[in-house]
Amino acid sequence: MQYFDPHIHMASRTTDDLQAMALAGCVGVSEPAFWAGFDRSGLDSFRDYFRQLTEWEPKRAAQFGIRHYCWLGMNAKEAENLDLSRQVIATMKGFLDRPNVLGVGEIGLNKCTPNEVATLAELIDVALQGEEQMLFHTPHLEEKYRGTRMILDLLHADARTDRSRVCIDHCEEQTIRVVLDEGYWAGITLYPTTKGTPERAVDLVEQFGVDRIMVNSSADWGPSDPLAVPKFIFQMRRRGQTEANIRRVVYENPLTFFNQSRNFQFKPAE
Amino acid sequence: MPNRPTATDILDCEFLVIRGKLLEVAAALDRIDRGTGSTDGDARRENIRKTLALLGGDPADSGGKASRAEQLQLIFSLPYEREWRKAQ
Ligand SMILES: [Zn+2]
Q1: Does residue A139 sit in helix, strand or coil?
Q2: Which one of A146, A172, A245 has the shortest CB-CB distance to B80?
Q3: How many angstroms separate the most distant Cα atoms in chain A?
Q4: Helix spans in chain A (H)
Q5: N or C end of chain A, less CB within 10 A?
Q6: Strand bridging mode A213-216 / A185-189
Q7: CB of A145 within 8 Å of any CB in chain B?
């Protein structure tokens, strides 16, 4: 089955991964800008990273028939540094019109500090001013619930927010209900240790249906699995879900969500 | 949804998985107890105790309550203060 991985950090993955993904049916990925695993030394590192996401990674993926899109932003971990964040946001603006950019992301919270909140509020303002779609990173483990609620509070406080153009990612059992009830898209991340498993993702689909739900691998430089989405497809089949439902979650939903972005162009295979 | 399996089908499928995971939890708790010193007063121990009580409780979905998985996640979550912006 053809599928999208709507959240994967290809910059940290090998061409072998791209090949395995293509063989498993992947036709497109979207790569949000994130932390490198260490704090970058300054603005130039971010500028090069944005070039990598908009120039180099699309070419690398294209060799395997995979369309590569991306999201640009200041990640929550480095957002603690307010000076650097302001410089990164100014630089980011110059990249938003590049052809594979879907919007601003992944932005969000990590430890939910006042500095993180200040940077996030600025990023949301830039996105809303430019009518950009947004992709949100929600914190891990014990921070996830309050961090997700705080992100929703920030979005609700701005009347310009169009919830149908916002994805709240890394949703789990304690957060997906409020995200969907409030009209946002919900991303479920299949991550071996700290987030969801394919089995629990199917549990959420059984309870909440297939509307506005996407699943992703968030595969990066840590323990993670670039083939997590096909494993979810397999688990959906085992649990008796229809092919139409499976296709809706892994293919049609990402297409519908991405299609709201002015730069998104995708021609499905005949 | 078509082909919805019965509860017994699911139990057949999950029984050994559940048994194995519970055994790992029991053995890990024993391992902690064999360690030197004590974890009395450690909030993580209390949260583990709460989740074990949750798992031993009634079917979670009766009466519109959150699922066991959702309740367990909330036990391991920091509290959300509605008025958080005033504190910042
Ligand atoms: Zn990510």
Answers
A1: coil
A2: A146
A3: 52
A4: 15-23, 43-51, 57-62, 82-93, 114-129, 144-156, 176-181, 198-208, 228-238, 243-247, 253-258
A5: C
A6: parallel
A7: yes
Which residue type sits at A103?
Answer: G
Closest CA to A26 of A217, A209, A243: A217
Give the burial class of A74: count Cβ atoms within 10 A of its Cβ; 0-12 exposed, 13-18 middle, 19 or more buried: buried
Identify the residue among B13, B50, B72, B88 best suited for mutation to test binding to A, counting A beta carbons within 10 A and taking the highest. B88
Could you report the per-residue pLDDT of A164-203, keeping only the tens digit for each? 999 999 999 999 999 999 999 999 999 876 667 999 999 9
Cα distance between residue A172 and residue A178, in whole Å:
11
- Burial bucket for residue A199 (CB in 10 Å: 0-12, 13-18, 19+): middle
**Dmax (CA) of chain B:** 54
Please classify residue A149 by burial: count the beta carbons closer than 10 Å to its beta carbon, then call 0-12 exposed, 13-18 middle and 19+ buried: middle
Query: Could B74 and A241 be called an inter-chain contact, meaning their C-beta atoms sit closer than 8 Å?
Result: no
pTM, two decimals, is 0.95
Q: Tell me the nearest-neighbour CA distance from B45 into chain A, angstroms.
A: 15
Nearest CA in chain B to A157: B85
Give the pLDDT mean for A91-99.
98
Compare CB distances from A144 to B5, B69, B77 and report the shortest one's residue.
B77
Token pair belonging to A97:
């019109």
Q: What domains are there in chain A, each with its CATH number?
A: 3-258 (3.20.20.140)
ipTM of the shown complex: 0.91
